[in-house]
Amino acid sequence: MIRINLLPHREEKRKRRQQQFGVLAGLVVLIGAVVAGAVWFFLDQQVEQQRANVAYMKNEISKLDKQIEEIRKIREETASLLAKKQVVEGLQSNRSEPVQLLDQLLRQLPEGVYLKAVKQTNTKVAVTGYAQSNARVSTLMRNLGASPYLENPELIEIKAVPSPSNPNARVNEFLMNISIKRAKADDGKSAKPAAKPAGAK
């Protein structure tokens, strides 16, 4: 009977398996390193992209802040110019007020009433004068109330004092407030209604 020794064959097979395992382990490590490197590279690119986006956004925000500041300055300048324009328009529209005021006061002044002082503050006018009687002051108030240029006459004070021209005589000194009527801007409410179409009832 022939005997065969299998020990060298088994030992050689074990060595081949160990070599295969080492190769596979090396391949796994290599693949793991490649995957880890790829993941790290991808994440690094994402971080860099985010940094670039943040820098871009900061730059754009800075530009917008400058534009907003410029717009604010332009609005302030526009508001200032509009205010100046309104002042100029007000001066142009009201420059004839003193003449009209004095004209109306003279027109509405009844006989026996004399004016001492006239002071205008915006649309308010304070009138000081002398009257021979209370009835003449009442007549002056009615006349001023009916004026197309003046309104709201209000008697503040009336008292008997010596006449400036004759100390032996007595007259009534009065203080009165009135208001100036100013034309209001047309708001479109007074516009005439549109004509009806032909044939409409």
From TrEMBL:
<dbReference type="Pfam" id="PF05137">
    <property type="entry name" value="PilN"/>
</dbReference>
<keyword id="KW-0812">Transmembrane</keyword>
<dbReference type="InterPro" id="IPR007813">
    <property type="entry name" value="PilN"/>
</dbReference>
<dbReference type="GO" id="GO:0043683">
    <property type="term" value="P:type IV pilus assembly"/>
</dbReference>
<dbReference type="GO" id="GO:0043107">
    <property type="term" value="P:type IV pilus-dependent motility"/>
</dbReference>
<keyword id="KW-1133">Transmembrane helix</keyword>
<dbReference type="InterPro" id="IPR052534">
    <property type="entry name" value="Extracell_DNA_Util/SecSys_Comp"/>
</dbReference>
<keyword id="KW-0175">Coiled coil</keyword>
<feature type="transmembrane region" description="Helical">
    <location>
        <begin position="21"/>
        <end position="43"/>
    </location>
</feature>
<protein>
    <recommendedName>
        <fullName>Type IV pilus assembly protein PilN</fullName>
    </recommendedName>
</protein>
<keyword id="KW-0472">Membrane</keyword>
<feature type="coiled-coil region">
    <location>
        <begin position="47"/>
        <end position="84"/>
    </location>
</feature>
